[in-house]
Amino acid sequence: MTDEIPQVSQVSQDSKNMAVLIWVGTIFFGFIPGLIFYLIKKDDAYILDQAKESLNWSITACIGYFAGFVLTFLFIGVLILPLVFLCNVVFGIMGAVAASSGKEFRVPFALRLIK
Predict the structure, then answer these.
(1) Integer Cα distance of 2 and 69 in angstroms
(2) What ranges do the domains of the chain cover?
(3) Alpha-carbon span 44 to 53, nearest angstrom
(4) Residue 107 burial by CB count (10 A; 0-12/13-18/19+): exposed, middle or buried?
(5) Closest Cα partner for 14 from 104, 102, 98, 103?
């Protein structure tokens, strides 16, 4: 019996940096950074994966913002809009931290529209 260590694919530092940019950009610019990297960096599997996750989260956040805006007329949206904003910031930071160490990050309750 041999003690073999399973091979783990290494993520380059450039890929990690670009993934961090995707997640930080998602906080400030919404779906645009994820879309740009998704369309341009098809050759890097890690960046493509994180761009898809960022896009999925951005779409979910946009739906939340829209629902909150509509519900402001019923005064419920006043509570929903800050919560969606807080989730956007928290998940963006969590994604950036995970990307800086080369881990795949999944937002817990994002709609998986882009696969």
Answers:
(1) 60
(2) 13-100
(3) 14
(4) buried
(5) 102
3-state secondary structure 16-43: HHHHHHHHHHHHHHCCHHHHHHHHHCCC
Between the two ends of the chain, the Cα-to-Cα distance in Å is: 39
What pLDDT is attached to residue 75? 86
Instruction: List the structure tokens of 24.
Output: 């930080």
Q: What is the mean pLDDT of each run of 10 residues along the chain (115 residues)?
A: 52 92 95 94 92 95 95 89 95 95 91 87
- Non-local (6+) Cβ contacts of 34 within 8 A are 22, 25, 26, 51, 52, 54, 55, 58
